[in-house]
Amino acid sequence: MSTATRAATDVAAMRRALELAERGPARGVNPRVGCVILSPDGDVLAEGWHRGAGTPHAEVDALSTLPPGAARGATAIVTLEPCNHTGRTGPCAHALVDAGIARVVYAVDDPGDHSAGGARTLRRAGVEVVAGVLADEVGAFLEDWLFAARHRRPRVTVKWASSLDGRAAAADGTSRWITGPEARADVHLRRAASDAIAVGTGTVLTDDPALTARDADGELFENQPVPVVFGRREVPSGAALERHPHEAIRMAGTDLAADLAELQRRGIRSLFIEGGPKLASSFLAAGLADEVLVYLAPALIGGPRTAVDDLGVATIADALRYDFTDLVRLGDDLLVVARPRAAAHHDIPTHGRA
Q1: Rounded-to-integer distance, Cα 154 and Cα 33, Å
Q2: Domain limit, last residue, from 103, 119, 141
Q3: Would you name the residues annotated as active-site residues?
């Protein structure tokens, strides 16, 4: 097989592995990973994917469908670097070596301090390793998991809707609806794409939100974010949250960093903050907002009910600076997407896959 043909075969198989990865559970502590095993001639011998924590990883799942010796000399195409540690399952790097795999192609490095190093183990065993194939596509697919694994906390998005002058409600407290149906539909899609959605107890007591993701007809999407409530006040009996498909997670909110670490341990990799100026401001001021979504309505309201509370900025030199990453027209409204300009999200190793 020529070098060009082999490269094209690798790319095609990686795209198939990514399709297989999408079959895995959308939420949980482990990443969604797919694997395709190719013969030396490039024919597909086996396919596998990871079905959740405690089940075989994608590589082992694919190997399990082959008779002994059938993988000798073959190539394994995997979306994530094969793991190198023993958790609930054994190390995939060793399984590939034991099966006689001659070549491994993967897209994204495993960021874990214990699970990483699979590529090194494979090379030491004489296996050819190719890294970075379709890294951008697979990295985008695994973005939330990779972030949570590197930083030991969920990726946090803070959202609010406001008038042009930054008001989230009128002076009498009314806020429905500042934005139009297109903007609200976009919010529900983003809710459904998040592992969890968070509000403060003040919002629960004032608005009694359902915190579900719904379509234009009010029907629930299949994937629902887990509700998270920050604050110590009790949620009243009969609140809409009690009818949510998932039981709400309660967080005291006194130490946001610790709360986020706990959510990550529970398998929450992305958190959508949607509850009130106080909660939003707390995450912003603490430097824990990785993305900001601002839905701007073409209206002026005035008054005291601003979308964001005090951020501890005493002078303009201390302003929290952001870079715009997207600007979207949604009906009459605008969605502004921004990320912290000097976001020093240093990679922090973790334990990787379980």
Answers
A1: 19
A2: 141
A3: 59
Q: Assign 3-class secondary structure to 262-306.
A: HHHHCCCCEEEECCHHHHHHHHHHCCCCCEEEEEEECCCCCCCCE
Element of type H or E holding 249: strand 249-251
Q: 253 near 272, Cβ under 8 Å?
A: no
Residue 334: both structure tokens together:
């605008």
| pLDDT 10s digits, 192-203 | 999 999 999 989
- Does pLDDT of 173 surpass 70? yes
Indicate the residue among 79, 108, 141 that finishes a domain. 141
**20-52: per-residue pLDDT in tens?**
999 998 877 789 999 999 999 999 999 999 998
Residue with tokens 């949604």: 330
Annotated binding site: 57, 83, 92, 161, 175, 177, 191, 203, 207, 211, 214, 274, 276-282
Q: Are residues 114 and 160 in the same domain?
A: no
Q: CA angle 305-307-313, nearest 5°?
A: 105
Closest CA to 86 of 121, 36, 124: 121
In sequence order, the 6+-apart residues with CB closer than 8 A to the CB of 54 are 88, 89, 354
Residues 181 and 224 in one domain: yes
Q: Print the domain residue range for 214.
A: 154-340
Q: Are residues 70 and 185 in the same domain?
A: no
What does DSSP assign to residue 245?
Answer: S
The binding site for NADP(+) consists of 161, 177, 207, 276-282
Q: Are 76 and 101 in contact (CB under 8 A)?
A: yes
CA distance 198 to 202: 12
Question: What CATH number corresponds to the domain at position 15?
Answer: 3.40.140.10
Q: Quick one: how far is CA 269 from the chain centroid?
A: 5
